Automatic annotation (TrEMBL):
Residues 1-26 form the signal peptide. The keyword Signal applies. The keyword Signal applies. InterPro entries: TPR-like_helical_dom_sf, TPR_rpt. TPR repeats lie at residues 106-139, 399-432, 624-657, 661-694. Pfam families: TPR_12 (PF13424), TPR_16 (PF13432), TPR_6 (PF13174), TPR_7 (PF13176). Keywords: Signal, TPR repeat. This is Outer membrane protein assembly factor BamD, BamD/ComL family.
Amino acid sequence: MDSLNRILSLIIWGCILLSFPLAASAQHQQQPDQDALFTGINLYENGQFEQAVLFFERFIRQPDTDQQLKMARYYKALSRAALEPDRTLLHYEAFIADFPNTRQAGELFVNLGHAAFKSDEFADAAEMYGRALELRLPAAFERDVLYWNAQSYMELSDTERAHQLLARIHEEHPNTEDAAEALFTRGRLFLDAEAYDDAAEMFEALRQGYPTASVTERVGTALGEAYYRQGRFAEAVESLQSAYSRLNQEQRSKAAMIMAESFNFMGDLESASRWYRTYIRLNEGGDVRLAHYGLGWVFHRQQIYHWAADSFNNAVSEADDDLTRRALYYKAVNHKLSGRYDLAVETFETFSNRFSSGPWVEQVYYEWALIFAEIGDHVSAIERLLFVVRNLQPLERPGEVFSLLGEAYFANAEYRRAIEAFQQAEAAGTVTPEVQLQARFQRAWVLFRNRAWDEAQPIFESVFGAAPDTELGSEALFWSADSYFNMEEFGPAAIRFARYIRSFPDGEFAAAARYSLGWSYFMMGEFDNAIAPFQAFLDDFSQPEIAVFTYDIDAKLRIADAKFALRNFDDAILFYEKSLAFDRSADYATYQIANSFYRADRTFEAVRTFRELISDFPQSPFREQAMYNIGYIYLLSGNYAQAVDEFEQVIRRFPRSQWAARAQFNIGNAFFNAAQFDEAIEAYKQVLSRFPQSDLIIDAVNGIQFAQQSAGMPDTSNDVLEDFLAGNPQAGTADQLRFRQALSLLEIASFEEAIAAFRQYIRVTNNERRIPEALLRIAEAHRALGENEAARTAYRTIIDEHTNARESDVALLELGNMFLDAGEYNSASQQFTMLREGSNRMRFEALIGLGNAAIGLGEISQAQSHFQAASRLSGNQNLVKLGLGRVAYARSDFADAAAFFKEIADSSTGETGAEAQFRHALSLQRQNLHTDALREFGNVRIFFGAYTNWVAEAMLGSITSNLAVGNRTEAEQIGRIIRDEYPDSSYAQRAQALLR
């Protein structure tokens, strides 16, 4: 084990080195507006979805990298879905369409699958899980999705498809708990189908292949007990003894042997010995070998090994029969047990001279090798075991044979061969717990070295779980953590590294665990947590004589990066400066010092340091971005002429760099900001002509549009884009560019332009699947412009012409909500009825809509039925409570209504909460609790100020309550606020009417 530890110690740093560049590269690029992304994510995680969307939209307009654009779009989709649960599908599909082959798309597909499954839409769930499986998912996540997909097909009674998916789990992920669960589930399916032979096969495979799996315990002992209850020995002895006196000699001889064997099985050794001797006496001069063999077992069980060896020897004959082979084997074993290794080896040698194949050869050679291993002759042990492996196939006890061979190789310092043997032993599964753990660890180590981390991790974990307080267990815990790290599952990795440090603070891998824990936190973006383990690593670090990698410098850089990410720029600069003396890191440290100056608004020092980087490190990979950043700093500071000069240098010196296209685009921005619109238009056009493969094409076209609008010129941006697409048919997907252009216009609230762009997209696209989505976007833009009839027309087009599209359900829902808002309750009810009957995907939303329409029609009992039906489905239950509160209000049960509304207002931050807060106040008002009502009306503005319609309704309610308590002055003041904030609106008219 010490030898193995030395080998593991030599390679540990190399294994961690495989992953360290990932985070460093994440800090290499300047991100001009990355705070918007970070802020948006923090807001999302804090549940502030409305505000998060604003930051994501800000970042999306000018992302720095495709990866960050993807993350911003992903979190925006999640935030939108949290705000508008009834439009989750629309938001998810928008992300998936643009990023179809990403892990995030897979997660969204799985979310849709879960939602469908909870709504009993199992076919839809199967489809969503299936689409997720088409993507490259992490192994552990893929296993879960396979199982969920199988469950969906089980619910659909499609057991064939379910078997296929479960078989994939077992075949593609055989060394996981999920594989055992899949086998068990398949066995259960076969049992349900009354296919008992197939069920038995599954359960046997489970028991043999996964003896330690938790699910194996559920198989029970039913398959084994029946084989052992056939030996009714006591009844056999009683029957034979009662008849013995009436038997002839031949029959007595046979009865004596049966009773001797029965007593032997029952452990009555004295009786067994007496009847064996009776048999020998009755057959004097005949073949009594079997009786001597039985006596050998009696003496063996009495631990009189030299007598046992003699008895077994009396069972040996010149015949080549099974009894002779067995007798020789047990003669040697009992010589060994009596301490006579010489006689044991001699007996095994005799056996090998007589028999080289057939029964008992494997057992003899195994015990023979075991004797050599015990006396330290590992070469002789290996020779005997190799004879077995090469000449006796298939083996009866492969696990024991390969385990002993692995131990012999290990003791003989043949480590690779030892690992191979342990792999064979682990596959066999028939070994002692200690050897099994060693074999399991070695197998996991081989997998780890071959980068099969997803397979190695659960094996390491199982070794630690079986022996947590042992040296082997501590090593297994570390490598389990490192496996997670290499799989980029940094959360589980951090938990295990931290546990290693707590449990084994002075362990062999403690320093590596601290370093790796710092990296794990760093990769998760938990920069404040990353600093302490990196510092602890540095406190105990001692540089080896030969350093392949400077871990101490890397740790200092990561501390500096963490300080940078936490906006502690002064401390970050201090740590970066500590790395300037080392050639390998000096350019990166210089680059980050410049970035720190820039982020701290010390632009002069930032420009100076970026220039130092360019001159001192001409071959640095950061030189292009450093030069670009200088131009960008001048751009942001308003020195547009200098910015143009700097950007032009980037293009001249690095024309093929990714920064060249971005520099050209920002030349256009500089001219635009300087109001030199002709020059800006020309610069933007240069992006299209010089960098047709850039991801800034749409931004450049938008720049042309804005410049032309600012200059009072005709807008020819669409013509420019069409000309570009005609000349560059391979420059990205033309269809996707057109759609993205239209979407970008919608996102910046250029609604009329967005409508025109989406209509142009519909005219030219060949992608029929995206037309319904384009129509949804057109409807959304019309509604933003207050063009409700045009929005309704777009929704009806989807419903009538794209009936089978998923967007058809969304269109029905939105159209129904529009009718609700307009007070057209019969029309709204028709749309929601079609939605409920056409698909189960949005059954919850349909029932909520039907309930609201029924309240509008005065059908209160019917409304209650709809809301109660929705309560039994998966969905936003606050909508159910809001509906039931409105039912209580309509029945004048104002106290019950107020209770419903208060519960929602206290738990919701969205528009549902705003409406509930208003209705809570209204319920108090109807109970003449005007003081309480005024307080609650005021809370609408305080807690839900973003929802201006409900704020206006609350102010109108405040006017009524103030008038009711005789406070006309306050009522008139509120009326003036309404007229100022909502001029020429229905709210202003209603306020005037209340104050007459």
